[in-house]
Each structure stands twice: as structure tokens, then as C-alpha cells.
Amino acid sequence: CALLASCLYSKMAYKVKSTKDQSRYDDMRKQARIYEERSVYLQSKLYEENAALAMELVVTEFSVWDITISPLECAHENMMLDFISQSCCQRRLNKIWYNDIGGSLKGVLKKGLLNGCCFCFDTDNEHDESKLRKFVCSPLARFGLHYAFFFAALVCYSAFLLTELDFIDGLQSVGPYEWIVYIHLLGDVLEQYRHVGLKEPKFPTDLTDIYESKTLLKHSWLYRVKSYLYNFWNILDVISYILTVTAMLVRFFKPTTTNNLTRRFYSLGLFTMYMRFLHIILVERKLGPKIIMIKEMVKELLRFIGILLIFMMGVGVLYHANMYPKHEDMWNSAGWTYWRIWKIMYIPYWQIYGFNFLDSFDANSTTPCTTIQSEWESNPDIERCNRYDWVLIVIAAFYMLISNLLLVNLVIALFSFRFRRVQENSGKLWRYLRYEVIMDYRTIIPAPLNLIIRPILSCMSIYRKLRRCRHGNDVHNQKTDREFIYAFGLFQNIIYCIYKNL
């Protein structure tokens, strides 16, 4: 109740802030903080008295005010960093992350992999088999396996872009690197769609049957999409998907001998995937906060771009009006690459980085050029000769003074402020984002393995439903981890049979 009360006060404070009622906003924020502190206090006291019970309670769903949610999920959705950073929540997240195998990465590798190797030589040892199964189904193993396949896809993507991007002539001209990229892309897109479109099953605990109740309020599909796109890393995923799919459409349906447009889209998609690969560093305790700082600074830079665009557009128009007077052909019909907007923005943009372009202000600096209007309008490859005007030097001097001394230093000051803010709460932010990673990879099957395992799970689900209809009783669904174990075992048997027949 204290967590939900804090959430409601925070939401109401946000609504009041839009009406410019500062005093009421401060009062509601104060009340929200009081309830959050009470929830943290109650959690810490219960953890001191009974740690096992406290760790079960934070992930058990409760129904309060017709809202069914677990305390940990409620704290995450409302960015309660203090609550999630408590030892109780972190220990429970560790148990989920390592699947109750151990308390550290070294212990998990020792008990999971080494016992698994022992099971390969001694198949009668059920204890080693259970350890191996727990390790395979742990979010840690899924996370590592996901990024192992992701890294392999990156290598194949890079090799394909560097070597195999030839003129397409049917599917037979598609190389092996390209096929690997497409298969991984298909599996990743389907898994992300399932993650967003389907409601995640609640986390089963020992207290679930005691406090189980009907969920009266559920997150809508639109809310889940918004929450998905609110994540910076998911946005990078979506951008990489769009760029790669666009490149595929251009490559297969509008091929050329040079493939320049296709190569550009593939290059942008590959660059976005490399940026996405930085997410693997987020789970590391020391390097994770550095990635958070980079992400927050990128957000600050994107907010600042609006101010820079106004300055660049204003100065660019001044340059162009005095260098090319009475230039009417602003939107050339030859293509968007010949529009004058790029000429207007070119010099002001690079002057921010210290290039003065004083030679460009001289008369007829662009050669070859022409002063005949019909020639530069009919042939966009021929540049118009510019005119010299002393006011250009004055404008450039004033603009570079403002941009290099004021705007750039303002950006540096914003970065410094954001760095200090993140540094102060780096531990809490890292634990908060770590929750997202753990809960995401609790149910995700790494691509492209999901293309094999998901159909098996679907067949099992259909079989259970048919069996339930035949017997007419209410059969509870098995846990996702047990389904994954069984499906993975079937996959292992298939591979073993293929290897044995070879």
C-alpha cells in the first residue's frame, strides 16, 4: 500500500506540475517521498527479521485497490531507486539471475558448467543434471548466449558488407554471411515482438497460491509498446531493424550495379547494432555506470541540438543570401541531394568544430562554376559562382565567437552537470537497470534458437489445451523454465541423432 500511495502521489504531482501550481506540487512530492521511505523502512525491518520471507514478498503479486502487481515491479515502473537498491531486492534479483545455483558468477560457472561436464561422463548423476538444467535456464546463461549469437551476427554482418554486397540475381546469389544475418534478424524480431505483444507470466513464488487473486487491471498493449520504446536500447533495436529491412527491400526490389543506396542502409544498420552491443557492458558493476553516463549525455545532446539548429539555420541563410543573391532554385527537381538546404547548413555546421571556411567566401571559390542561371538550373552538377561580400567575414567572426566559446562550453557544462548527477546515483541507477536486464532475459530465448524452440513450445501448449478439453479439468500451465528445459532437451536429442548418423 505504501508503494502504491507513493506512486499515486507522484502521478498526481506530475499532473499538478503542468498547471504551474508549485506549492501543491511540492506538497505531493513530499507525501510521495514519505510513503516511499516508509516502504523502504518496512522492507528493511522485515528483511532483518525474516530474510527468506522478505525476498519472496518483493516478487509476489498482490491485489491492492483493484491493482495486481508485485512490489518490485511497482517500484521499477515508478523509478523508486531507493527501494530497488535495498539488499533484499538485490539478493532476490541475484537468485533470479543465477537461478539459485550460486551467489556469484564464479560459483555459478563452477556449479553449472563443471557439474554439467561431470554429467556428460556420468549420466546417472541426477544432481549434476539438475545443476546443468538450472544453469541453462538461468537469465545469466540466456543473456550470455544471446550476446554470443549477437556477436557472431555482427561479425557476419561486417563480413557480408565488406565482401558479398554484389548485384543480386536471385536467391542463389545470396551468400552464407547474408543468410546468417537474415536468420538472426528474423529470430530477434520475432522474440522482441513476443516480448512486447504478449503479457509476461507472473513470477511464481512460494506465496503465489496464498495471495493469488484475479487481475482486475492489466497493462494494455499500447502501454507495453510505450514502455518498450521508453528503453534507450530498445529504440536502437527498432532503428537497426528498420534500417536493415529497408536495405533488404532496396537490395532485392531495386537493385543496381553499384548498390550505393543499399550499402548506405546496411552500413547505418550495422553501426546501430554495434552501438546496441554496448548493452552487454551494462551488467558489469564498474563499467555499467559509464554506459549510463554516455546514454544520459546523448540525451542531453539531443535536447541541445534544437538550439544549434536555430543558430546554424540563421547564419546559413545569411551566408547564402550574400554569396548567392536571387537564387530561386532552392528545391532542385534532380533529387533531394541537390537541395540548397544542405549548402545552407554545410558551412555553419563545420564552423562549430573550428573550421573557418574563409577561402569559401572569396569570389568564384568553387571551380568549375558558372554565372549563367540557365546552366546551373539545368545541370545540378555545375555549381553557381559565389559573390564576395565583406559582411560574410563579419558574420563568420561573430558566429564562431558565439558557437565556439558560448555554445560548445554550454554543452560541456551540461555534460559535467549530468556526469555529477549520474555519478552520485551511479550505484542505484545500475541496480535499477540491472532489474530490467534480469526480468527481460528471464523469458527470452536467444535468437536464432527461438526459431527452433518456440515451435516446440507452441506444439506443447496446443497439446496441453487439447488434453485439457478432452479431460474437462483445469490443468495448470507448467512453468516457462520447465518448458524451456524440455524443449532444449529435445533440441539436444535432435543434434545428437544427427551427429550419430554422421
TrEMBL record:
Alphabetized InterPro entries for the sequence: Ion_trans_dom, TRPM
Gene Ontology MF terms: monoatomic cation channel activity
An annotated GO cellular component: plasma membrane
The keyword Transcription regulation is annotated on this UniProt entry: no
Pfam families: Ion_trans
Keyword Transmembrane: yes
GO biological process: metal ion transport
Bilayer disposition of the protein: Multi-pass membrane protein
Record's subcellular location: Membrane
Residues passing through the membrane, by range: 143-162, 228-253, 265-283, 304-321, 390-415
Keyword annotations from UniProtKB, A to Z: Membrane, Transmembrane, Transmembrane helix
Ranges where the Ion transport domain occurs: 221-425
Record protein name field: Ion transport domain-containing protein
Organism: Mytilus galloprovincialis (Mediterranean mussel)
Source organism phylogeny: Eukaryota, Metazoa, Spiralia, Lophotrochozoa, Mollusca
